[in-house]
Structures are given as C-alpha cells and as structure tokens.
Amino acid sequence: MEADAAQLEAPRRRAVDGGAINFLSILQLKQFSLCQRSWYFAKVLRLPEPESKAQALGIKGHAQLEHYLRTGEDVLGDIARAGHHLLPTPGSDLLVEESFGTPSPLSADGVPFIGHIDLINPRRLADGVLRVTDHKFSSHVARYGATPAQLVDASTEAGLQMVGYGVWAALSVERFPSVRVLELEHLYFQTRGARRAESVLARTSTEHVTHEWTEKVVPMVRRMREVARATRSADAPPNFGACEKFGGCPFKEKCLSGGPTVSLMNRLILKNQAPDTAAQLPLAPPPSAAPAESLGTCDRCGATLTPENTSKLRSGDVLHVSCPGAEVAAVLPPDAPVASPTISTDGAPKRRGRKPKAPAAPGDHQESPTIVPMATSLQSERLRLFVDCVPNMPAASLAEYVSNVASQVSEAGGVEDLRFAGAESALGFGKWKGALAMAIRSTPPAPGAYAALGLAHSELLQIAVEALEPLCGPGDFVRGAR
C-alpha cells in the first residue's frame, strides 16, 4: 500500500504550500485524474479526509500481508488468506513496503515523488525480470478488477499507479541494474461475499513505462501545478461521475452544497464565458446599448418615443407602453375564453346569480383576441415572461434558452440527458430538477421578453418558469388563461 503522508519523508513540508507543489505521490495522481476538485480540496485547501470502512479494512489487510511476507508468521485473516497460494514464499530477499527513497529517483516536471510499494520480488532479476506487486482489497474482484492492458496504460487509474512503480524501478539502476522486463501485478482480495483472490499480471518493458510516464504523466503534473495556484475551488474542474466511487467522495457535500463554490454552477458559468457561446442565447446581461433613437412624441402625454418605451401591434399601431394616459395590453391566445367586460353597478340593487352579459358593440367580432390590461410598464432592462400567451411585442422562445441550460447541466453532470441520470450520477434520483433550477437562477436569460408556450407538455419549461417567476418585476410575469 502506498504511503501518501508527508510525515514519512518530509515531516516539515506540505505537498502543496502557497500554490507550489513540493512533492507528489502516485495516490495524488490517481485522485487528480479521478477528480481535480477533489485533489484541490485535499491537498491545496487541506480539508480533512475521514477514513472509510473500506480503507480501514484495506489497511488491516496490508498490515497482515506485510508481517507475513517479512517474517513468515501466518497472521493472515480470512480475507488475506484467500490469496495465500498467490503470495511468494516469505524471505529476506523480498522488498516489502519498499520506500521510494530520499532523494527519490522518480519525478515528473521537476516534482519529486514519495511513497512505498507493497512488494518487489527480485528473485528472477538474473534473467532481467522484476515483479512489482500492489495488493488490492476490493468488494467485487470480477467487477472492479483491472485488466493486464490497463496495468500498462498510464491513462487508466490502475496503469497510472503501476507505470509509476515501473518507472521508479527502471530508474533505480543501482539496485536493479539488469532489469529489462517488468511484471506489473495487481493481487486482488475480495472483501464481500465469497472469499477469493486473483492475480492480474502484465509484462512490459522499461522503455514502455518510461514512454507512458513522459507522454501522459508529465503533462498531468503540469496541469496540477496550474490547479495548485488556483485561489478558489471553482477553478478546479469537478468530475460528477466520480462522486460515488470508492465509497463516495468526502468533499461531495461541500462541492454540491450551493455555497460560494457551487461546483455545478461554477462549471456552467466558466463554460458560458467561453468564446463558442456567442451563438447561444445570452445567459448574462449584454453590454449597455447605444442611446435609443427617437420615434417622435406621444399624442397623449407628449413624451419622447423610443424603441425601449414603445410596442408595435400587429395592426401596425405604435403604443407608448409607459404612457400614464393609456393602459398597456397583453394579447391572449385566440383559443382563450372570451373575457367579460366589467359592468358598472353603481346605484343598481345587488342581485343573486349570474350578472347579465353586456351587449356586443356594433362591428365587434367574437373571434378577435381578448385584450387584458397589464398593471405596470415594461422596461427593456427587465426580464419579461409570457407563459402560455402571445406577447404584444417581439419575444424570444424560452424553450431555446432552457434547452441550452439543460444541455450544459447534463454535460456538467456527465450524462447525455439530465432527465435520465442514473443512481451513480450527482443528478440522479430527481436531483437534476434542483440543479437545473439553480443553474437558471444563477445564469438567467438576458433582460427582454420571452414566451413559454406549451408549459403543460414540458417539465423542463415548468421548472424554468418556476425558477424565473421570482426574478420578474410586478407586471412582468404574465400567464395566459387556462
């Protein structure tokens, strides 16, 4: 089992201090490759990582194997004993829990590595063969065990570790001068269900592991330097597909809490700042526009008319929407129920039952759209939302904006469609609804008029309308008749 505690070889130095990386470990590489933000929380912010039951079980099993291989005394528990036949005969020539040494020959981009290797078997070194073994305690060997191909591929979690161990052995020329072939082994011990053990072995050359390290690990360490200099966790990209792996990330609640560093929102906001979002619906207020062009004066109040305080109806008439002498109207859909005009009853006795209908004025047509007054003026800097009704002004489709945000939330959550997020996803079990609402509130559409039509047939639109309604001013949220 690799040791990642700085106290082992650098008791007075931290792995990351002041944005500078002093040293790394294979375990840190694995954590960073799995989720950069998790590594940032652990090594840059130095947040505590509570020990899980699986980790405690693994530590106990490693201690038993170490004692047995060093001394030959059989102290193996029932889990470790299942792999007794796969272990070499104990002896002083075996290198058990072997340290990388000080100074360590293993480094990447100038950063030294610390750590320990579970077992190195040099008994075939005369033939140029060195076996490097890492003991793994897994709940399900068949499901979670690596393949031989993965052990020699530094782009995989298993290969990242074993390639690093192989490079360390290749660089330790004074200790292993004749090594040409590396046998990289994962020895698995199953912790749940039937007791079983399995050896996964890959043979490779020292040249191969050195090439993998140079091409894949060195660039990763350069990226780790950038993340280490970040002043906020939002600059460390999260991997929401890893939240539930290995017993669950200890920083999941902080990452998804919705506090100052909301991982999902930060990822969406950073994405919206990318140049390729220019063609999308704006998710942030646009820069201030040029002074509005005058369109004359209002016949009623004498105010100067501009595109910002006027609305052109289908008939071609131009309305002064903020005129104190006129009411601003919103048009309902043609199939909406016809509204009855208000009948004055001053001086008339009150009667029970339905009020009589007012006679239709000459020339009126039943099929004409019903006009309902709006309470307040519509200003261009406001967000105006028309739900299941047709606005009396140019309006963008809210569905297009919602589809854009939903796609970004899906991408941030690592799923194709947020509505089908599985149990292993941070958006699973219906959590996508809250994530979508939070994304919409955090990055609402630019001020202007938007139409949300067909609300009953779109759950995404329903969530968006509910999230945006509190952001609309008085009179800026209009819902059509049901």
TrEMBL record:
Top-rank lineage group of the source organism: Bacteria
Domain PD-(D/E)XK endonuclease-like: residue ranges: 99-255
Cross-referenced Pfam families: PDDEXK_1 (PF12705)
InterPro entries xrefs: PDDEXK-like_dom_sf, PDDEXK_AddAB-type
Region of interest (Disordered), residue spans: 334-370
Name this polypeptide is given: PD-(D/E)XK endonuclease-like domain-containing protein
